Amino acid sequence: MTKPAFTDEPTDAADNTKGSRGPRAKVAAVIAVDGPAASGKGTIARALARHFDLPHMDTGMLYRAVALNLWRWGGDPAHEFEALKACDVAAVDPEDPELRSEVVGGIASRVSAYPAVRAALLERQREFAAQPGGAVLDGRDIGTVIAPDADAKLFVTASVEVRAKRRLAELAARGMSVHLEDVLIDIKARDDRDSEREVAPLARARDADLLDTSGMSADEAIAAAIKLVEARLAGN
Ligand code: CDP
């Protein structure tokens, strides 16, 4: 069976979830990780998937794939109908480096506000979350809309300044030179759009554990996330 696009299957590779210190623990749980841009949710979700030996879906990549389709085809993100026509993401190469660009991220945050776009991507996310062995999904509305009955939910956040610096470092690592001030403006605009849209806004589910990673290294954030999830799975 081919794996669904924009997902990672557990691998037999050595556990590199630094901070987990110990063998991987197979659990059949659904873990929801939500949070704003550059909060560290993707890193944390991937590490949780490795630690608990679960498949992982980065749902932001689905919205980015729609955005990339639309952009390449010359469609207008201001029109819901045009965005909807870009929702067939099967042809998008999950390894396409453009998926991670700021331009595509910006378009993704605009088209993701359209109810028709969210509806078009809903089923594949719900199915992924409902697979028998459990799964980790990260995004904006996993704990609230996609998997409201998840076994463990994290809402990962960090101050806007810290997030802008992280995004700047990510972009620099990919050879892109941008100004901190511009990244800060972009992240604030993205936060506003994600939190203020009417359908599935970015919001902490009532039963989600809050993890503020502002003062944490990636290793520390991963260790804290594993601890929170383990406590939830143990029923605490
Ligand atoms: O982490 P970053 O904000 O750069 O991007 P992402 O997680 O890859 O998501 C890209 C955009 O898709 C976000 O700005 C959100 O607007 C949107 N998104 C969403 O609406 N719902 C999700 N479950 C995931 C992403």
Commentary on this structure:
This protein is an alpha/beta fold and 236 residues long. 46% of the residues lie in helices and 11% in strands. The chain has 9 helices and 6 strands. α1 packs across α9, α2 (60-73) crosses α4 and α7 crosses α8 (180-196). It starts with 6 loop residues before the first strand and ends with a helix. The model is unreliable at 12-23 (pLDDT under 50). Cytidine-5'-diphosphate binds next to α2, α4 and α8.
Topology at a glance:
Blueprint (H helix, E strand, L loop, with lengths): L6 E2 L21 E5 L6 H12 L3 E3 L1 H14 L6 H6 L16 H10 L3 H15 L5 E5 L2 H5 L5 E6 L2 H14 L6 H17 L12 E4 L5 H16 L3
Parallel strand pairs: 2-4, 2-5, 3-4, 5-6
Antiparallel strand pairs: 1-3
The structure holds cytidine-5'-diphosphate.
Radius of gyration: 17 Å
The arrangement of helices and strands along the chain is EEHEHHHHEHEHHEH
- In the predicted model, the low-confidence regions spanning at least 5 consecutive residues are 12-23
The fraction of residues assigned to DSSP E strands is 5-15%
**Helix/strand class:** alpha/beta
Average predicted local confidence, pLDDT: 91
Bound molecules: cytidine-5'-diphosphate
Q: How many distinct beta strands?
A: 6
- End-to-end separation in angstroms reads 37 Å
Output the number of helix runs. 9
Shape: globular
Sheet having the most strands: 6 strands, mixed
Widest β-sheet, arrangement of strands: 1-3-4-2-5-6
- Helix percentage: 40-55%
Summary keywords:
binds cytidine-5'-diphosphate; alpha/beta; 236 residues
